[in-house]
Amino acid sequence: LLIKHPARLLKAEQKYICVELSCIIKSTVTPDPRIEWKKIRDGETSYVFFDNKMQGDFVTRAEILSRTSLVIKNTTRMDTATYRCEVAAPADTKTIDEINIQLTVQVKPMTPRCTVPKAVPVGKRASLHCHENEGYPKSTYSWYRNSEPLSPDSRSNAKLHNSSYTLNPSTGTLVFHAVHKGDTGRYSCIATNDAGFAKCEEQEMEVYDLNIGGIIGGVLVVLAVLVLITLGICCAYRRGYFANSKESGESYKTPAKPDGVNYIRTDDEVTNDLHLTSLCLGEEGGGQRTTGFFRT
Fold this sequence. Notes:
Blueprint: E1 2-4, E2 9-12, E3 19-21, E4 24-27, E5 34-41, E6 44-50, E7 53-54, E8 62-65, E9 69-72, E10 81-88, E11 96-105, E12 113-115, E13 119-121, E14 126-131, E15 140-145, E16 148-149, E17 165-168, E18 173-176, E19 185-193, E20 196-199, E21 203-208, H1 212-238, H2 245-250, H3 267-286
Protein name: Junctional adhesion molecule 3
Family: Belongs to the immunoglobulin superfamily.
InterPro entries: Ig-like_dom (IPR007110), Ig-like_dom_sf (IPR036179), Ig-like_fold (IPR013783), Ig_sub (IPR003599), Ig_sub2 (IPR003598), Ig_V-set (IPR013106), JAM-C (IPR042974)
């Protein structure tokens, strides 16, 4: 028994295409050798074709061609794996033979998602992010300012000697450690892999100066207002505007009796006093003075 494959490595340049994995029997004396296909991915082995039937999700999108070759339709990046063709020929001297075929399904990157701060003060830190997760193999990232590429190291470009940034091509992160006015511009990012590339739209980042004088002036105004409020409260206390209610209420209390006891007057006593007062006033009008008390 002898089998072979024209190529042990296959690359599908894009997803959703048809791929043929060839397994050719060169010589055998067994009339009907047994054919099996297996998929090995992340250390796990599963059947693709077993007992003359397709297995798993390959039932609707794969078939056997020319008795031994495997055809996979609508490939996706999840089909990236090692495929093993095993042939068993009991009547041959060599009863079993196998070959491994590495299939890589390459997927072009999708448009990356880019985040760029709109405005950053001079001297502050600024982080720009670029990422997409559809491409296979994994994408790498490059940043552009005003359509000109930014090198991974700012020190390697004479035009960027005033910039201080770090660019990570693997994560797509661009970090300015301390921005300056020259970092103002339109920023865009490109995600690239073996299958192609994709670019996000340009976004403007403005670097502005901090108004130190205005900030100091604002702080001084606030302090002056607080001082005036404090002085006003102190003056109000000194002039008695904030006297407590207890002291205010005591000024309206009925004076105590000479013996130091406060008496509660009944309604009859109040009526008698009023009657007595009216009598006294009437006597004063007549020119006579009478001593004593009259009760009704």
